[in-house]
Amino acid sequence: MKKAPAPPQTSRRWVLLLVALSFGSGCAALLYQIVWFQLLEFVIGSSAVSLAVLLGTFMAGLCLGSLLLPRIVSTARHPLRVYALLEFGIGASGVAVLAGMPLVSRLYSTTVGHGIPGILLRGLVATICLLPPTVLMGATLPAMGRWLRANARGASQLGVLYSANTIGAVAGCLLAGFYLLRIYDLATVTYVAAALNSALALISIGAAASVAHDRPEVQEPPVVPPQQTVGAWTVYVAIGLSGLSALGAEVVWTRLLSLLLGPTVYSFSIILACLLTGLGIGSAGGAVLARRTQNPRRALGWCQLLLTGAVAFAAYMLFEFFPQQLYRPPGNLATEFRSDVTLSLMTMLPAACLWGASFPLALAAAASHERDPGRLVGGIYAANTVGAVIGATATSLLLLAWLGTQNVQRLLIAASALAGVLMLAPWFQPPQPRRSPGGKRQKDMPARWRAAPTIAALAVAGLLAVRIDPVPGLLVAFGPYAGNAIGRSNVLYTGEGMNTSVAVTEGDGVRSFHVSGKVEASNAPPDMQHLRMLAHIPALTHGGPRSVLVVGCGAGVTAGSFIPYSSVERMVIVEIEPLVPRLASQFFSRENNDVVRDPRVTVVNDDGRHYVLTTPETFDIITSDPIHPWVKGSASLYTKEYFELVRRHLKPGGIVSQWVPLYESSQDVVKSEVATFFDVFPGGTIWGTKGGDIVLVGQADPSPINVDAIEERMKRSEAVAALLREVGFSSAIDLLATYSGRASEVGPWLAGAEINRDLSLRLQYRAGLHLDFDNPEAIYASMISGRTYPDDLFVASEGLKQALKRALAARPE
Fold this sequence. Notes:
elongated; 10% strand; single chain
């Protein structure tokens, strides 16, 4: 009997067209995702709660889209025309989010609160912004799936489309992270993505005109043979558990790998791209296997059981192998990025390939000839996405802080093992009667014997889970330099919080506080000096501050420097990580005057920018000491819009101080930070320290600095004077001699400096390229080359004036 010819839509050239469309769709989706996450972080904050709400909303939209399209859109509609409409809609929604964000920000800032009501409102804002475009994104794969058939061959082809979509996402991630956002702004990236959507839609419309769609509308649900429905629910549960473990592992491994690579935007792009690469490779391999295997359920089950070993392998690499290696700074960026890619792939590739292979195998396990392929792919995709939402939100919001990465990875192994059991255990298998060649039914092997391999695999998985070690303290403290610190530093505390990992170490008589694998503060004299200056320069200049806002707690030294000022009635410390104030109180209470327990102090656990955006309060002094601008997310505290927010929350006569590091930075990066600050505070001043840092000070209403008044205030308060003597300032002259210039004097040096704005935020991309640069002395010397004694800035009696002139002239450049 001659085999019937395949329908035109299943021919090679049409499948290749779908592959190309899927690739482009994935690329555009990642461009939007990166842009939207950055835009919405400005409005709802970048804390774990905000990002979990954001990610949950994004993935919930994908889930809804995959479920709704097969139920709303008739099978009689041409799939390529439906896909074209979806792409047009995604592009329009992307541009609308960009244009509507300023309006959302204004409305949001007037109504939002903190605590549970604030979290709920953040969720509503994220839903309003992201649900329309993400629902359309989620519908694209089911729409293309209707061009195929719901059989083993069709499931394999759907797996290829999923692989192409994932590889396209890799391209979008690298394109945005390494080029577009480094060179252009968020608007440009949005327009590139929208143009890609439009191109895909036009190609799809042109293709739809070339071939008719001959599938009739399905009026009734298909009749599925009983042997295919028995146990079918286990496929959806298994792929849901696969999504849960994949996204849970992504959260864990992103935190740990960012410690090893350095938490720059490039590291996050590399980590995401490597994970997506593994998913793409795995889904391509799974698509081939789905067509060739006689039992896709069994293949899916073994994928899940093998994942238990892959997760344990990643834990070994991250906890035992990499932290033991000595770190030598690479000679160039290309070498550094290659090293980062190699490390990330070694860690994640085995597990990512298995997660990727699980999707087409699940499609094949759930496929039947009578079913709508759109419903098939929509259901499997939705189950996988629901699991991913649960895994990502539960891990980031609860499990990391409650259980730590050691126990979270044990839970991920357990989830994979459970998925494997559902697919392999004989009790969950659909009945498949076997007959001998003569037609007689053969006797099934006893269930206990058929279950033996599964039980053995579970025993191995349990052993692997037990052997996972806690995260090394030196890794949390020193990141890539963990191997170099072996035997040189004593780890006093290691903690894994909701937002970041923190540690306290002691070595060579210095106690250090670490955040995200780098030293954030210490009791070493150079560090203590700039931390004290951030408080004392604005407090002594103001004369009688009553309310103070401190953005970023750290070791609490800056906040604690305000404690001796009797005029201070209220101080708010905003810290994104709840662990930090507790550690500051426990390990640095002497250096910070036990500030956390002071009755005048209120600690708010939130994103600092979000707090400034939403609080109705104004303050006499606002001081910001964020983590280094090359750390992902920190650059939002160095933008013009942030400084404008700060200025609006200053009382008349109010003063702001801002830390800027000269170390691990380049001259262009420092110029951008200083120029942006002076753009908002044109009368601002620069104050230099001994540790490779500067302090920027700006006033709402610029006025001269009364040297005699500052000298008198220091004499009147022995507590204030004692704190300043500890860091080398025994008089007002010593403190004010750190003056390093102001806008009018550094104007020539700042020529051509780029203003850091919310919609560009190129600072974090530039800073991320220079974290191995370390020449603060040269940057400082270049910056102060035009410094002169400012007669109109310092008001002083003749004796103090001459003393200050001599001190400034004697200060080395």
